[in-house]
Structure formats: structure tokens, C-alpha cells
Design goal:
The chain is α/β, with parallel strands linked by helices and 232 residues long. It has 11 helices and 7 strands. It folds into 2 domains: 159 residues, Vaccinia Virus protein VP39 (Rossmann fold, 3-Layer(aba) Sandwich); 47 residues. Helix content is 49%, strand content 22%. Helix 2 links the parallel strand 1 and strand 2.
Length: 232
């Protein structure tokens, strides 16, 4: 049975897609995608040999076909045009940006990115804006006590994705344009819980005599002011 996190990744993949699961770990998502026939083919890739040994055993035990297991970093394991959908989950947004930047040649043939960073997605949203990718949809959810963001991203329309009036692009990159618009109960709970931490960070910065912290402090103060208004 899939966890909530993996279930949402599975649901985000369009039926019939040719998928690359980057950082596949033990291939649970790849197996589910082929077992349900949601994906026509899956490349299950990981940078570590250990998880891939478990992946091969799990695939054999599940008796599913159409999964190609590969060892390598990020999109290095793919050829241009080989897949139309790329799933990356379970790692930090900064590492995801590194993978996407390094794999731009492969991305030229991709129609859909399904991304689920392990922490805040701000670096990814900034990268999309700079590189011509548009956020089609976003969702925030909780699983086993952790909060996750899932982003569905497509080529083109990058500036149109940040469509909210009276909300700066900076803040939309931090909190997500679709998530701001939806402002779900999960979103409210997650950011209400984070507010004290943000306020403590600002308090520490105010005590600092390092002039380099001024810009960061203003950035956090804008976050706090926006959250207070949005969550009021």
C-alpha cells in the first residue's frame, strides 16, 4: 500500500505517460505506476547502488514489466525524448534545481514535471520563472507528521503562473501562487506553526551587527507580514 506522499505522486502522473522516477529509492512508485498501468514505461533511476539493488528485488517480487533500472545522477541517465514525464521527490529543492539545471538538454523533450521537494519549494519556483516553465497546479498536504508540497509543472507560461494581483513575485515564489489562492486548512496550519520560528529568526537578525544580514531580515519580515495578513 502506498503512503499518502507516494499516492499523490502516482495520481499526478497522466495516464499513458513515459516516466522517469529520479531518486527512485526502492522503486515503490515505479512499481505502482506499472502495476496500475498508469505509466506506459518507467525509468527508475538513483545515484546510489544500494537502493537500486532493493529496487530490482522489489520489481522482481512484484512481477511487473516495463521498468528500466539505472544508476546515475539526476537526468544523466536519460536520453532526450526518452520520457515525457519526470518525477523527482524526497530530496531538497536546491538539489532538484541542480538536477534540472544540469539536465536541460533532456528537459527539451519533457512535457510534465512532478516535483515534491522535502522542504520549501522556493528555489524551484524561482528556477521555473527564470527558465520558462509554468506551474500548472500545486497542492500542500500532510503525511506522517510532515508537510509536503507537490508541484505540477509544464513548459511555457512561466510568468503567467505568478498571476496573483497585489502579491509580489518574491512572495509567490516562497508560498506558491496556487497555494496562496487556495489557502487550505493544511496551508494555514503549516504556516501558523512556522510563524514563531520566522519571528525568532528576525529577532536574532535584529541583534546582529553584521550588515549582510539586513537584506535577509527584510526578506523574512516581508514573509511574516504577508502571512499575518493572509492567515488573519
Amino acid at each position: 500500500m502506498l503512503s499518502e506522499r507516494l499516492r499523490r505522486l502516482h495520481k499526478a502522473v497522466a495516464p499513458g505517460a513515459r516516466v522517469a522516477d529520479i531518486g527512485c529509492d526502492h522503486a515503490r512508485l515505479a512499481i505502482a505506476l506499472r502495476r496500475s498501468e498508469r505509466a506506459a514505461h518507467v525509468v527508475a533511476s538513483d545515484v546510489a547502488a544500494g537502493p537500486l539493488r532493493h529496487a530490482r528485488l522489489n520489481i522482481a517480487h512484484a512481477n511487473v514489466s516495463g521498468i528500466d533500472v539505472r544508476l546515475g545522477f539526476g537526468l544523466d541517465t536519460l536520453k532526450q525524448g526518452e520520457v515525457d514525464t519526470i518525477v523527482i521527490a524526497g530530496m531538497g529543492a536546491t538539489l532538484m534545481v541542480e538536477i534540472l539545471e544540469r539536465g536541460k538538454a533532456v528537459l527539451a523533450g519533457v512535457k510534465h514535471l512532478v516535483l515534491q521537494p522535502a522542504a520549501e519549494a522556493e528555489p524551484l519556483r524561482c528556477w521555473f520563472l527564470r527558465n520558462g516553465w509554468g506551474i500548472a497546479d500545486e497542492e500542500m498536504f500532510e503525511d506522517a507528521g510532515f508537510y509536503y508540497e507537490l508541484l505540477n509543472v509544464t513548459p511555457g507560461g512561466s510568468r503567467r503562473a505568478y498571476h496573483l494581483n497585489r502579491v509580489s513575485v518574491e512572495l509567490q515564489c516562497v508560498f506558491g501562487p496556487h497555494l496562496i489562492k487556495q489557502t487550505t486548512d493544511v496551508f494555514r496550519t503549516r504556516w501558523r506553526a512556522a510563524l514563531p520560528t520566522l519571528e525568532n529568526i528576525v529577532a536574532d537578525m535584529r541583534r546582529s551587527r553584521d550588515p549582510r544580514t539586513e537584506r535577509k531580515r527584510l526578506h523574512f519580515e516581508r514573509r511574516i507580514a504577508f502571512l499575518r495578513q493572509l492567515l488573519a
